[in-house]
Design a protein that fits this description.
This protein is mostly helical. It folds into 2 domains: 9-107, no CATH class; 111-223. It has helices at residues 9-18, 22-30, 63-80, 88-107, 111-131, 148-175, 181-198, 203-209, 212-223, and strands spanning 39-43, 51-53, 58-62. Strands 1-3-2 form a 3-stranded mixed beta sheet. The longest helix is centred in the last third of the chain and has 28 residues, at 148-175.
Length: 224
Amino acid sequence: MSCVPEVDFNKIIYCYHDLGEKKLLKKSLSGLNINKKVFLFYAKNRHIPICALPKFRLVLSSRSGFLSFCYNFFHFMSCYRYPIPVSKTNIASIAKFVLSHEIGHILDPDVYASKEEYTNILSNIVEKLIEYDIDIEKTDFYKKNLPSDLEECVVLLKKNLISRESKAWDIAKNIVVFNNDEDRYLFERIREYALATYNFGNLKNIIKEHNIENILKYRKYFIN
């Protein structure tokens, strides 16, 4: 699918710079309607995707991590719906919304139970790969007919992640301060984009993202 117009990454950088970069994120964090102290770790020269460590009430971010999110979001909207203009106003709102989402994880009382379930499903996937002796070195292993219980594990993993992320976005909607209807609209589009990325992928992606290949090599080494 062709994407028109092309996203101006340089304009994203300029807007973010003019807004103060780290200062923008700190201001966005302080503007959220929460009664719990939350900390921000920001790296200017390292790539850290925006994420939360609920146990420590800590949000991690970086210059490249935030810029990457912005670019991918604008690109997604250009391809699959219609373009949203790159502007200081929209960049500032994106900062506010992505931080509110991470705070949503921190405020979610069920986040640890959800992550534990996620880990158990991953373990089941590893066990199924070993049980059925699936050769993940083959480039098309994930395209063939997989055992039904393994496919079910993949579906359960996605459901777990989407459920946890959806809850974080629901919490975010209640703690963020919207400036106007355009702000609310942008929030819904960012939420839509984020949830779409969580639902994308297959067994090959799961193996790569969680270093399951190394786990399998480790297991087989000690089993043999």
